[in-house]
Design a protein that fits this description.
The structure holds two protein chains of two kinds. By secondary structure, chain A is mostly helical. Chain A has ten helices and two strands. Chain A is 65% helix and 3% strand. The radius of gyration of chain B is 32 Å and the shape is elongated. Chain B folds into three domains: 140 residues, Particulate methane monooxygenase, b subunit. Chain: A, domain 1 (Jelly Rolls, Sandwich), CATH 2.60.120; 79 residues, Orthogonal Bundle (Helix Hairpins), CATH 1.10.287; 131 residues, Particulate methane monooxygenase, b subunit. Chain: A, domain 3 (Immunoglobulin-like, Sandwich). The longest helix of chain B has 28 residues. The chains are: A mainly alpha, B alpha+beta.
Chain lengths: 247, 414
């Protein structure tokens, strides 16, 4: 067979090969995104995602969506503008969640024996679905950034609250009040993470009394809009074959 | 020649495989937590741990033990390390092999950071509950913000039993008793699985149709809009609305299920109560101090004045947790770790009882392999070559009195 000849001999065979490529690419894409996004998220979200006693109503709510909208925006740019596939965000967050669970289960629990109910990851699935759907419906990067980015920030806290609420039940411990999450942080010794490193409940947002989380979520959503633009362009600029050389 | 080369390559590869395989079977126990690699001046001039006691050498799973003692916050705290204004009483163990059931400074529970005063001495206690079987090195430890972990002496403790039997029952303020080891685990797995399946379902909708090759061909041909059908938009909209609806509904139902929740607690505890030590009746002036590198010995010339009403003798020099004792004066009966105890490591030129009102100049030598083993000799390479430690004098009644010393140290290489 010469180089100019087709590798397939019929339309049915072409469709079959095309589908095989679909699955191969999707499989590879999932793990490539997982690797990059996971490293990025560990470095930028870090402790806020590692431990339940870091998951507060101010900084956890603010920081994680901002650092978490990055890869979804970039992957969306590639998959939407080149393939019209509206699942860039959800594939990214599913990859991240899978990678984080592997990390938490095998490293944090299997290797160092921190209980899983103390080190489970946060999840971004509802926000990512909305991000993808807004792009699907509007075909607009700007509207996706503004509506989807804001929703990404807003949905994070309530999306994780069913898992976090049971750990915010108060407990009296030797004369002090703590939440169960605080107690987990105190009980399960982290030699390299002293209490003063824990960045929770810091800031000057005191005007809204106890209702801090919604304000933090709005702020997170606004910053997520900006980050979305930035990373969407990263996806557009670098999601290209210009950097490869044809044989 | 080629045959020889091939043989060498093959044998090298086999050797590499054998080495890698052998390495897999060699897994030595970690023997310490890096305290030896911490700069000597950090251990000698910051927190001085003494009168330490590990209540048990062997603990079954679910049983408790305590680490108790005192620590002196050195007044000559080095300029290169942040002051201990924000500190945390920690415990140096390899992960949560014990849980920290309680920790106290001066009788106050300290789950949070504390502010410590230079020159003060504090009593501490850490209550540990055994969780994971094994032999573990248990250290006292103080984290100082801007200074890092300042690790104290460690002792081997064995935990017996099975980790599967470990429980951590807690009664909440809402009256519910839970096991913190497994609490909320099923709920976490359920919601993460639910959302994962939800996300996969959305991807599956798109993956059931041709994805990459036909679509990029269509996009390149200017037919991108034809790839999204009205049904696709309806399905997408349904997923989006469902996601928002489920989040809202579960938020409401969760708040109904857990009506009482509080924010995470954080803060700094000030006003830690130090030990009220009586005013020292012994005054010590360091005339000079040298460290003799080949002999692994530190020599000090001290002028001691006894202002008390009972004669005294020098019994111990304690620095960085290493205890040099004059066996004629003081014998350790606390089970202090052997590697940190030089039972006859203190030699005093004249250690006869110093009567009240008398002054005497003596030569004191603290010698032991611990200087090298614990890398305290590296002090001579520090930017501020000073040594510091605690001297313990014993009076006729057996009472001990602590005096701190802090002076320049001159190395001697011959």
């Amino acid at each position: 067979m010469s180089a100019s000849q087709s590798a397939v001999r019929s339309r049915a065979e072409a469709v079959k090969v095309s589908r095989t490529f679909d699955w191969l690419i999707l499989f590879a894409l999932f793990f490539i995104i997982l690797g990059g996004y996971h490293v990025h998220f560990m470095l930028t979200g870090g402790d806020w995602d590692f431990w339940t006693d870091w998951k507060d109503r101010r900084l956890w709510v603010t920081v994680l969506p901002i650092v978490g909208i990055t890869f979804p925006a970039a992957v969306q740019a590639v998959l939407w503008w080149r393939y019209r596939l509206p699942f860039g965000a959800i594939v990214s967050v599913l990859g991240l969640l899978f990678g984080e669970w592997v990390n938490r289960y095998f490293n944090f629990w299997g290797w160092t024996y921190f209980p899983v109910n103390f080190v489970f990851p946060s999840q971004f699935v509802p926000g990512a679905i909305v991000l993808d759907v807004v792009l699907l419906l509007t075909n607009s990067m700007i509207i996706t950034a503004v509506i989807g980015g804001l929703a990404y920030g807003l949905l994070f806290y309530p999306g994780n609250w069913p898992v976090m609420a049971p750990l915010h039940i108060p407990v009296e411990y030797n004369g002090m009040m703590m939440t169960l999450a605080d107690l987990q942080g105190y009980h399960y010794v982290r030699t390299g993470t002293p209490e003063y490193i824990r960045m929770v409940e810091k800031g000057t947002l005191r005007t809204f009394g106890k209702d801090v989380a919604p304000v933090s979520a709005f702020f997170s959503g606004f910053v997520s809009i900006i980050i979305y633009f930035l990373w969407h362009f990263f996806g557009k600029w670098f999601g290209s074959t210009a950097f490869t050389q044809a044989a | 020649m080629k045959i020889i080369k091939d043989k060498v390559t093959k044998l090298s590869f086999v050797a590499l495989l054998i080495t890698v395989t052998a390495a897999m079977f060699y897994a030595p126990t970690a023997s310490a937590h890096g305290e030896k690699s911490q700069a000597a001046f950090m251990r000698m001039r910051t927190i001085h741990w003494y009168d330490l006691n590990w209540s048990k050498d062997t603990v079954p799973v679910n049983d408790t033990m305590t680490v108790t003692g005192k620590f002196h916050v050195f007044a000559g705290w080095p300029e290169t390390v942040d002051k201990p204004e924000i500190s945390f009483l920690n415990i140096g163990i390899p992960g949560p092999v014990f849980i920290r059931a309680g920790s106290w400074i001066g009788g106050q529970l300290v789950p949070r950071s504390v502010s410590l005063e230079l020159g003060e001495t504090y009593e501490f206690k850490v209550l540990l509950k055994a969780r994971r079987p094994g032999d573990w090195h248990v250290h006292s430890m103080m984290n100082v913000k801007g200074g890092g972990p300042i690790i104290g002496p460690g002792k081997w403790v064995t935990i017996t039993g099975s980790m599967s039997n470990f429980t951590n029952p807690i009664t909440t303020l809402t009256g519910q008793t839970i096991d913190l080891e497994t609490w909320n685990l099923g709920n976490t797995y359920f919601w993460h699985t639910f959302w994962y399946v939800f996300g996969i379902a959305y991807v599956a909708y798109w993956a059931r149709k041709p994805m990459f090759i036909p679509r990029i061909i269509a996009v390149d041909a200017g037919k991108a809009d034809s790839l999204i059908t009205p049904l696709d938009k309806k399905v997408g909209l349904a997923f989006g609305v469902a996601a928002i609806g489920i989040v809202a509904a579960t938020m409401v139902s969760t708040n109904e299920q857990y009506p009482v929740t509080t924010p995470l607690q954080a803060g700094l505890l000030r006003g830690m109560k130090p030990i009220e030590l009586p005013a020292p009746t012994v005054s010590v002036k360091v005339e000079d101090a040298t460290y003799r590198v080949p002999g692994r010995a530190m020599q000090m010339t001290l002028t001691i004045t006894n202002n008390g009403d009972s004669s005294i003798r020098l019994g111990e020099f304690n620095t960085a947790g290493v205890r040099f004792l004059d066996a004629a004066v003081h014998v350790d009966e606390t089970g202090y770790p052997d590697d940190l105890l030089a039972e006859e490591g203190l030699t005093v030129s004249d250690n006869s009882p110093l009567a009240p009102g008398q002054t005497r100049t003596i030569n004191v030598t603290a010698s032991d392999a611990a200087w090298e083993v614990y890398r305290l000799a590296d002090l001579i390479y520090d930017p501020d070559s000073r040594f510091a430690g605690l001297l313990f004098f014993t009076d006729e009644s057996g009472n001990r009195q602590m005096v701190t010393v802090d002076a320049p140290l001159i190395p001697s290489f011959s």
